[in-house]
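chain below, 618 aa
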Amino acid sequence: MALLKSHLLPLLLFSLSALLFFSSFFYLSSPHPNPNPNPNPNPNLTLRPQNPDFTFIIKLLAYNRLDSLSRCLRSLAAADYLSDRVHLHIHIDHFALADADDADLKLRESRRILDLVDAFEWRFGEKLVHYRTANVGLQAQWLEAWWPSSDHEFAFVVEDDLEVSPLYYKFLKNLIVNYYYNASNSRPYIYGASLQRPRFVPGKHGNKLKVDDRTRLFLYQLVGTWGQLLFPKPWKEFRLWYDKHKAKGIKPFLDGMVTTGWYKKIGEKIWTPWFIKFVHTRGYFNIYTNFLHERALSVSHRDAGVNYGKTAGPDSHILDESSLEPKFWNTLPLGDLKWYDFCFREIFPERVIGSLDELGSVLNSVQTNNTVIIVSLFGVKEMVVNNLLCQFESLNLRNYILTGPKSEFLFDLARRGHPVIITNRFLESVGAYKLLSVHNSYVQLISEILVKVYVLQKCLESRYSSWVVDGNMLPVSTDPFVVESDPSYDFYIGTSPELFFARGSSSAQKDVGGTDFISNFAMLVNSLLLRQQSVSFGYVMAKFLEMKKSVRVNTLNETSFGLRIDNSIVNQSLGNGKKIVFWQNDMASEIVQKRLQEIGIWVINDDSSCKAVVCHQS
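prediction:
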């Protein structure tokens, strides 16, 4: 028996080792739910492969500009590719066949271009030439040039009048490693990187494109056409989106954008209005560079062609080794970079407020005229919320904070730059649930009420006036929540159960401030629920203030400054002096949409994206 055990011992040890190895392997390789749902990554976590295995393809789009193409090819061949394998695909559009008189001349031009690319030696990888049989134009050249074969294939698209820096590939590889493969520093809503010098703001009446001289990288929604690196996943997503919209005859109209005017004028000759519309719908961003003295890693010579009637000359100066700065290769965490929308207005993505300190900081950044609007999204349909936020955008209302239950939708709103409180996470972080004693079935209702109380108290600490409203109140005025009020009253409670106003005064802070306010308020909520009374924030707040004999509370009638819509009344008009439109919480969202369309304030498309980009000078 001992002999048998001595023979089996190595086998048992080997089996145990194998079991541990495969258990660890399957655990590490299997998908696991993220224990931290916060979209903000751990800044100390670095999962960056030193040399990820990816495919890099240069997509060179050419037509009939021989000298331009020759210059572009020379600059590409002069770049440093770090001994990596880099492929070159040249896509040559055919000349138009409408006019046969100059066919011989155009045939000779095309042959000279083909002779050039055939003779051109590409030592860094595969060279592929695609010569079209008919003229398709710039849109098809871009859109048909690439369908990624994997999520590890990248395309760098250049038009033939571009010239690139010898450093361009080293720079792009650095971006790919740090912003695509670094798990702690990548985002699925970054679609690539542009090497051109940023100069253009497509939003009408947008801000001047000006970046701090110390900023070398920033994120901007606009696509660049003069040297654009494309990430595979967003490009595939765009192509499928494009196919769907083309098949259904949906045009890429986006009111308030210069590019929409271009599309209406020259139509399908250009592709950028399609991509801009897609980016606007998804809330995606592009990485841009900002080098001093008008330098760039990709320069357009703006030769005569589709975009220019006559040659305009280079837009920038090539950045090379002689003009490098010491921190050229440094890549900052995404959280340290600035992000800009189509109006070149700075936005702050992923603002999920998780603590009282964060709440105070966000309140300071969003308040306007010392006033904050607290918007509850509990029970509000997504399309109604999107319409509300698009209306906020058009009216330049930015002094708001959104509250609601945990959902992918709310996280997406935060990703797009809206300040958001995920109610249960926030209340857990501040220890609010230990104040509750009622049954779990009331937790969501209590959470909806308590989060408003915390934000209200924090507003009053900073002497900010605050409005508490539901997502069923749509502003139609730039000052929707500015009403004439008696200064002797610090609190106003609306006839709607969720409309409430607190003046940012020292007396109001005294009435609903202090360390005991939250706990006393929670005790009152518990008491009302145990007596099975129907509660809402406004109702509990009214009861709480009644117990304070010295506090004066006034009533606010929404119909005095707002229009109420319902199921029965059709074709209503706003009338003079109306600042909001509101409706009952239980009104069907389809009816809400219909009524708002009749009034002319349903401002989203069928995909719930804003119909317009509305820029306001910062």
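The chain has 17 helices and 24 strands. Confidence is low (pLDDT under 50) at residues 1-48.
thats it, cya
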